[in-house]
Amino acid sequence: MPRRPSLLFLLLCVALAGLAAARRPGAARGPRPAAAFDYDLLIRGGTVVDGTGASGRPGDVAVSGDRIAAIGDLAGRTARRVIDAAGLVVAPGFIDMLGWSQYTILVDPRGVSKVTQGVTTELVGEGWSPAPVNATTLREDSVQFAQWGLAVDWRDLDGYFRRLERSGTPFNLGAFVGATTLRLYVLGHTHRAPTSAELATMVALADTAMRQGAVGVSSALIYEPGSYASTAELVALARAAGAHGGLYISHIRGEGDGIQGALDEAFRIGREARVPVEVWHLKASGRQNWGRMPQILALFDSMRAAGQRVGANSYPYAASATGLSQVIPSWAREGGSEAMVRRLRDPATRASIRDQMDQPGSVMVLGVLDSALRRYQGRRLGEIAQAEGKDPRDVALDILVADHGRSGAAYFTMSEADVRTAVATPWIGVGSDFGATAPDGPLAVQPAHPRAYGTFPRILGKYVREEHALTLEAAVHKMTGVPAERVGLRERGLLREGWFADITVFDPATVADRATFENPHQTSVGVRYVLVNGRLTLEAGRLTGERPGRALRGPGWSSP
Asked: Is 452 helix (H, G, I), strand (E, B) or coil?
């Protein structure tokens, strides 16, 4: 006669069966405990603009962990945190196609100027990249690193990314490997073509960087020593990027009179290397070239119609920013800053340089390293010259010598009409061309170009709301979906269920830039909430101090 199970055994079986049922996917559950929620965060009642260019629509966006869990009418669903987005736009986080935060975010990890614009991802590496590193690549920036107290303790891109993740960052960061950095690493400032062995070393370094997560190879062809590279050299490096699914991106060799030839070279590099091409901060520079932007865009259109993958990005300002040294002829800059300053200190060579300079009176001094020169920051060379009874050329040369060639400047060389045309073009992405900075702290002593704080809100405020140069949906598309697709950022750039929760919530009625050339350290207004990988970096317009950003590694990288 079978033995009856004990009461204790029966109770144990019932308990185990209940536990197993609770763990089965789709298993029926009893009443939800009061502490349980559907989502971690719910953005309710906003206008969802998803980054594809499609019209905005009313809806809710839910986040669980680092992902978008649901989009639509989520009435009745619950979350640990609910954000009332009535009257606000809910968009993908903005992607900065060109920043310079690779070092500044290690010095001040708050990322104030970026977060307050709604930036959730930045790409760095315009010719110069954070890796590979040797004594030669470090020499040019050693004074700046010393002032910041920044120790460069990495040697390759993988080491840089690990340092970034240890430090923490409020936005995601991806990197190109720079052709200038590769040239410096192998050749230094030597003005000659690499030997076949040297070029093979440069290609191998590019290949390693791509395997470690670079998204492509970049060049900056108006700056020495990057300008020494031949087209063939750049094709070889671009092929290394293409072998890993990357792209070639360039500050082209000329942005003024020679822009057509410079674009032809970029397109040729793309064709011969069989890689997509991107042009940084597209512009028509110089008064004699004002009005040429439609013609320039037509060149891109013809390449795209022929099946070549080409694109560009721009910033919404009529003044560029780069080194003050650009006021002197290129031969005088050869060999790096130390060689340039030696030439300027020699009276005969200085006189020759001065004779070959255009009048730089409209150029504005933006940043200096020597604190004794800070009285010049934010002032134009013509104004300084008048106050000191000098020629503007002498003012520029004196500052370069005193600041060891490391001063920054703004150049007012573009027309507002050309800028507006580029901004209104839907396939042109957005790049601020400036690193993360802040109105206080270690970075505040150096003035910035207003694009550092205002690039994305300026487009939404000035060009969308005030001038109707493009629709809000088109603007969001060029800030999000366009760059994500162009660079190959996986599961970012759009509001899609299951994609990473990089989200920017802004007020379309108030979003605006406030930074000016005279007072650049002013944060923008109107961006209310920013999420990076599901965590708030900006809440009700205030920084949270969270650092949820990640190193975004390119298609050639595979996790160890």
From this structure: helix
- CB atoms closer than 10 angstroms to residue 71: 18
d(CA 230, CA 221): 10
Percent of the chain topping pLDDT 70: 94
| Residue 94: CB atoms within 10 Å | 32
Contacts of 350 (CB under 8 A, 6+ apart): 343, 344, 397
Element (H, E) at 71: strand 67-72
Q: Are strands 39-48 and 57-64 parallel, antiparallel or unpaired?
A: antiparallel
Reported as a single tens digit per residue, the pLDDT across 403-437 is 999 899 999 999 999 999 999 999 999 999 999 99
DSSP 8-state secondary structure symbol assigned to residue 500: B
| Secondary-structure percent of the chain, ordered helix, strand, coil, rounded to 5 | 40, 20, 45
**Ordered alpha helix ranges (H), 108-257:** 112-115, 135-139, 142-148, 157-167, 179-187, 196-211, 231-242
Amino acid at site 220: A
Beta-bridge partner residues of 422: none
Residue 11 pLDDT more than 80? Answer: no
Question: What is the rounded distance in angstroms from the CA atom of residue 252 to the CA atom of residue 261?
Answer: 9
Provide the 8-state DSSP code for 284. -
CB contact at 8 A, 281 and 320 = yes
Number of C-alpha atoms within 13 angstroms, CB side, residue 107?
A: 21
Cβ–Cβ under 8 Å, residues 366 and 410? yes
CA distance 410 to 412: 7
85 phi/psi in degrees, rounded to 5? -105, 20
In this structure, the dihedral spanned by the alpha carbons of residues 156, 162, 164 and 170, taken in order and rounded to 10 degrees, is 140
Q: State the CB neighbour count (10 A cutoff) for residue 33.
A: 7
Query: Which tokens is 281 given?
Result: 């901060």
Q: Quick check: helix, strand or coil at residue 359?
A: coil
Top-confidence residue, 23 or 462: 462
Condensed to tens digits (0 to 9), the pLDDT of residues 504-534 reads 999 999 999 999 998 999 999 999 999 999 9
Q: Using CB atoms within 10 A of its CB, is residue 171 exposed (0-12), middle (13-18) or buried (19+)?
A: buried
Contact 170, 531 (CB under 8 A): no
For the chain, the farthest-separated pair of C-alpha atoms sits apart, in whole angstroms, at: 118
